[in-house]
Design brief:
Length: about 425
């Protein structure tokens, strides 16, 4: 039996997108009519989005699937300020040229997920630089600033956390939530947008927008947050030993992107299936009790489904061929060689301990030392010690298989 009246909220909750919202019952009623507008904002601090943006992007994809109209707001203006939410450091100030370059890259990242156009459910792209760049400070303070209480602002967790840790919070950054609230006001008055989406760390900023519209115009709008992307043990997802998992193929190849999903923890596979694939919910439910060796098949399905959305289904043939070729020299009888991740080696002074920890084969340097001293680490099938030196001539075609016992492996690539 459906929990909500609106089809979007039912599927969003069942897939794991829902964390908290303002006036859930009223928003549910509002969403029973198709063609509603909701927005998500992204500051353009890099030329690509990454896996950390995946939940809000996938949520807007679902919003569009249910007949509503997503607005993607890119922060050409707010990028110049920097969101201080739950950050220990101040973001660097980017030039207008850097912001423009980043904007082009982010637009490309969004195209595989959403259909942009002029129809009722087509997505819209807006840039808050269009109204923030030319804002006049004194009129802005009189029009908008008077609705904000400093007492209320410093009570939000995102601000309170910085103040309690004695981290620097500049006046520039402190203005961020006011400008984000103003974005919501502009989208409401100019486009009729009544919902702001965002991660759970954006709750304070979203509430500011909801309250501003209520105080200034006497109208009710809604905030909806999703949980942040974490692993089953509570760690933040989206990072590898070599950096962020980018959506831009020039920053991370489709093969390495596929490998990231192919090697997620067993306990995370089903959750990621619900969040990031287009597989129907009943189909995923049938997979929930799968364990053991069969979980490897689910990981490959997960990697295939997500990669086909981001990089196109046609990319899978080449990825599968690359995986097969990569392991054609492997002399061991591994039941699933495509599950082995790659580690890029550019510094031959790295020790076996460094690589064991950086590749996450071991949790700590102490664990790595104990494993090496116990004879449990192998380079291309040969036992090595702590003193082992990586040399170019020991790599066959630039590749070496590095193993912990019989089940944990990486492929070191020069």
């Amino acid at each position: 039996m459906a929990k909500y009246k609106s089809s979007f909220l039912n599927e969003a909750a069942e897939r794991g997108f829902f964390y908290q919202s303002t006036n859930l019952d009223a928003m549910d009623d509002y969403l029973t009519t198709k063609g509603r507008l909701g927005y998500i904002g992204f500051d353009i601090t890099a030329k690509s989005l990454h896996v950390g943006h995946f939940i809000p992007i996938a949520m807007m994809r679902l919003f569009q699937k249910h007949g509503h109209r997503p607005i993607i707001l890119v922060g050409g203006g707010t990028t110049k300020i920097g969101d201080p939410s739950f950050r220990n450091t101040t973001r660097p100030i980017l030039s207008d040229k850097q912001i423009a370059e980043n904007l082009r890259g982010i637009k490309q990242c969004l195209l595989p997920f959403l259909h942009f156009g002029d129809k009722e459910s087509d997505a819209i792209l807006v840039n808050n630089a269009d109204w923030l760049n030319d804002i006049q400070y004194i009129p802005f303070l009189r029009e908008v600033g008077k609705y904000f209480s400093i007492n209320r602002m410093i009570g939000f967790d995102s601000v309170k956390t910085k103040l309690e840790s004695n981290s620097s919070l500049s006046f520039l950054e402190f203005n961020y939530m006011i400008f984000q609230a103003y974005d919501f006001l502009k989208l409401y008055t100019e486009k009729g947008c009544c919902i702001q989406f965002g991660g759970q760390d954006q709750w304070g900023n979203i509430c500011c927008g909801v309250e501003l519209i209520k105080k200034k115009l006497g109208k009710e709008v809604f905030g909806f947050t999703n949980p942040l992307l974490t692993t089953s043990d509570g760690k933040k997802m989206g990072k590898t030993a070599n950096g962020a998992v980018w959506l831009d193929r020039t920053l991370l190849s489709p093969y390495d992107f596929w490998q990231y999903w192919r090697n997620v923890n067993d306990a995370d596979v089903i959750k990621l299936m619900y969040l990031f694939t287009d597989l129907e919910i009943p189909e995923i439910k049938k997979m929930e009790n799968i364990q053991g060796q069969e979980i490897n098949d689910l990981k490959k399905l997960l990697a295939d489904e997500i990669t086909s959305i981001v990089h196109g289904h046609e990319s899978l043939d080449e990825i599968h061929k690359s995986a097969a070729n990569m392991f054609s020299k492997d002399s061991t009888n591994l039941s699933d060689t495509t599950s082995i991740p790659k580690y890029q080696l550019s510094d031959f002074s790295k020790s076996p301990i460094d690589i064991l920890v950086e590749s996450k084969l071991c949790e700590s340097r102490g664990d790595a030392k104990r494993l090496l001293r116990g004879g449990g680490v192998y380079a291309d099938g040969k036992t090595i010690t702590e003193d082992y030196k990586f040399q170019k001539e020991n790599f066959v075609n630039g590749v070496m298989k590095f193993s912990c016992g019989k089940k944990k492996h990486i492929l070191i690539v020069i």
